[in-house]
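Thread: "does anyone have the structure for this chain?"

Original post by V.I.:
We have the sequence but no experimental structure in hand. Need at least a predicted one for the grant figures.
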Amino acid sequence: MRFILLPFAVIIFAFSYGIGATAESVFTENLALGSVNAQVKSLQRILNQDQDTRVVNSGPGSPGNETNFFGLRTKSAVVRFQEKYAGEILAPAGINRGNGYVGFFTRAKLNALSSLTQNTVEARISTASPINSPSSPADMIESPVSQDKNSIL
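Reply from O.Q.:
Generated one for you, C-alpha cells below.
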C-alpha cells in the first residue's frame, strides 16, 4: 500500500510547492495595459526568463519580483516578445509590429513556451513515478472571439 501511495504523494508535493507549471502558466485570458491578475504575474515570469524580453532589471516586475499588474513596462516587454517571435505571433495576424496586447497568437506562443517548461518538469517527475503526465497546456488554447487584428494578438 505504501508503494502505491508514494507516487501520488510525490506529485502532490511537487505541484503544491510550485515545481509544476500547469495551472499558473496556462494563459486563458487576453491581457492588456491595466490588467491585474495572476496571469500577469505568470506573463512577467516568462518574459523575465529572456534578457531580450525582460520587464525590468530591478524593482517591481523584475525577476523574482513579478507583480499582478500589467503596466507600461510589461506592455513594452510584450512588444519585444511579439517582435522576437514575429513569425508565430504577428505574421498570422497580418501585421508587422507588436502592440503589447496579449491576445490569441501571443497567448499561444506563451503557452507553447510554458509547455516546454512543464514537459521538462513532468519528465523529471515521471521518472520517479509510473503515473502518466497530464496533457499539454497548449491543448487548452481558446480560439479567437473576434477577427479584429488587435484582438487576436
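V.I.: this helps a lot. Residues 5-23, 123-148 have pLDDT under 50 and may be disordered.
O.Q.: and The first helix runs from residue 2 to 16.
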